[in-house]
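Check these lines:
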Amino acid sequence: MTNNHSDYKEGDVISGYRLLRKKRLELIKADYFEFIHEKTSARHIHIKSSDSENVFGVAFRTVPRDSTGVAHILEHTALCGSKKYNVRDPFFSMIKRSLNTFMNAFTASDWTMYPYASQNEKDFYNLMGVYLDAAFFPNLDELSFMQEGHRLSVDEKGDLSYQGVVFNEMKGAMSSQSQVMGRSLLNALYPDTTYGFNSGGEPLDIPSLTHKDLIDFHKVHYHPSNSWFFTYGDLDFEKHLQFIDENVLSRFEKIDPGTEVDNQPRWDTPREVVYTYPADGEKDIEKKSQAAVAWLASDIRDSFDTLVLSLLDQIMLGNSAAPLYKALIDSDLGSSLTDVSGYDADNKDTFFAAGLKGIKAEDAAKVEKVIFDTLTELWEKGIDKELIETAVHQFEFHRREITNTPMPYGIKLLLGIGSTWFHGGDPLSVLLFDEDLEKIRKKALKERFFEDYIKKYFLDNHHRVLMILNPDPEKGKNDALKEKAQLDEKRKSLTEADIEKIREMEETLTRLQESREDLSCLPCLEISDISKEVKTDNPDKVSENKNIFYYDKPTSEIFYFTSIFGTGHLPKELMEYVPIFTFLVSRTGTKQRDYIDFTRKVDAVTGGFGLAPLVRTSVFDNNSVFSGISFGTKCLERYQKDMFELISELIRDYSFDDTKRIKSLLLQFRSGLESAVVQNGHKLAISLASRNLSSASSIAEQWSGISQLKLVREITDSFSDKDKEEKTLSLLKEKMTAIAGMCFNKNNYKVCMVGGAGNLDSGDELFPLFSDSLSQEGINGFIAPALSDVKKTILEAWTTQSSVSFVGAACKVPSFGTKEAPYFSVLSRLLKSNFLHREIREKGGAYGGFALYNSEEGIFSCGSYRDPNIRRTIDTFEKGMDFLKKGDFDLDEIKEAILQTASDLDKPDTPAVSAKKDFFRKILNIPDEKRQEFKELLLSTDNEKLVNTAQKYFSGNVFKDNIAVITGKIPLEKEKPLLKDLCLDEKEI
């Protein structure tokens, strides 16, 4: 473990690094060390913490000068083999060979980052060696460039097409309205800097990038003089510095990379721009536009103004009761905030945007007027001091809360300081903003502080744009025609010898992809490095009625409250409305106060209210289905009483009387569900394909899949007719009231409280505020719900706005608690890593291919993401089953699959998350003994057990009755001749 490093002084030199600064970060109980490498000027920050989830990251300032996607393609290609690790795919190979808790790579508008996290010291340095070699000494060979970036492909007829992982990824990304909005806004607001280009790559521009361009970009941008290193955790930073210096930095001399990003020249007059997104096949595009006003704001290096603008974002847009948020929604011009709303502090020049989506194109000027009227009123009349206190509270709360969701805490710290640090700002000022925060709070409560900032950055700021995004029913088709024209032009210039060379290169690439490599040069953990024990937790106390679970945990003086209400007793006609209920109930106000007052109070004293539908299978209770509503909140200890009073008010005095508010919320809900289709197409396709394989899967699809979107669309479509709208909202109010009445009763709850001993004692004293507010009548909903009939066979193709596809297939297998369960976990990883990755991503050009085992439901599924193929992928899934039955796995491959499974089992949790997971296990009656048994069986997995399991359960075409595709009309039409025998039922999303 680490030394205390207390003897180091600023100016000391360690392994070629000079210590510039050291500082105690008291709030997160950590120490900050900032270094510069004297020979190369590489920067390094280490944050020493007691956290065993150690983090490493190296970042480069990458500044594209076109939209060919060079930085994005380089991020991919750098991970395809290096000088020391000369194998085809060391990155994905190391995912299999380690106990990492996080591995990824990111390309932003002006930086590229390679971060990972691990709890195991040996693993940490194994990964560091691979990451460093990949970043600084990559092979960058032409075949990898063709695979990951773009290449020409020739079919049997001699027709050309583009292939490549990034090419297909960006075709999928630029089918998404939200992606188009975000990238178009950057182009509009920063036309004279690198941000005006699409760093991910425009599909029609990507093919102009050459292999030489890629290599030249790497030479400059991935040099130590253009690098920023970050480490975090309880390992010894001296060893980190020595390792990096010896393996990389000592081999380089300092250069001037010239990657500084220029500030965008400021405008004298505002501008208006119009862009379009693909809306092919849309029948009604009248209210499918977006409009946003965006301002260029402070330089990222000005940490004080950046903090002020972040607080203004919270004040004006932080919740549905915030003045600008409310004004926009109340205007009835659109359905929800635009996809770019809020303050963005990722670029050197930061920006602020606000607007609406779901508007008529001609209403853009009205949206702009609402925004300026609101800002002018805030400047003239002043900002409510309560809003300021609430904004400061939210910052304080989230500053204090240490979480590893959705990624390790150390990586969140790196991302938090990254943009400031990479552009020459002070990263320490980002971490230590408490003094500035208190200074702002005091000033803002006494004088016109935020009002002056509104005038400076919004009302008097001429560098702003009214950005309008309109649907184009022909754009997808026209883009496809442009791509075809581009390819036809290339075809004219190619000789037969050129065509033959393209075929030869593709064949060479295919042989490379299919070759079995010797991976012995890569480091690997052993089964002996895996802990034999599962991580367990247990309540420190359980109430007499077994309904309240208390967990005494160190939670930085934050108190966590979670309650589960059963829904198994709800009639069928109410079940499908549970997600709508969870979205509405805490956002519609109460009988005591309207939604504005209630929302502001929630934000003033808690970390937020969160309600969500929950469906699980209790495998040790005869696979009975548990469905419920999860309600969670959290607060600083001084606000416990306020929090319990708000909980009490919600569950006792819920109200669905504000029909105007409900209508607005439903339109926002619909917008969010629609945006998720292209972002999470693979998950939705698998959900569709597996919905008849278990009761819980059926409910899950009804609650969080395409079925829920269609229900919400049906409701909101009625709003176009006044009489229908009134009838729909009246009926909805009845349903919402019925669900609340049936669920919020004294016989239908289980509660988890997490905090320090003092928090728990006061929570116990305040608990009657919760329990006494529940209806004293009602039945226990912790029973299996009544189920609707489901289709026996699912063979479906669902169309939406997408130029690529998402394919899902599923079959039924034994579940958790059976001896085969660990083997299915291992088989899913072998299938994904050793077959689907090669066949679907490398050869097929999709962004990803997946194999998943849902042990609770006993469902084995395959999926693809941003996929240029449909039939080929379905056939690949079938071939994957043959691959598993054949069992041609060597010992190392099995070991790697076991390591991956164990890594998921052993991922660290913060104390609060660990407690809540145990609480859910108690509700579902999952004994720790069964979890331990699963792990022991996992660690004893061998080839014979795997092959026997695969041959027993994967005989025949196991996916033939459970296939679902989410795609666009153009790619589906193209593939129809190949899909005739499947007789896919075509449906529109």
Summary: The chain has 35 helices and 29 strands.
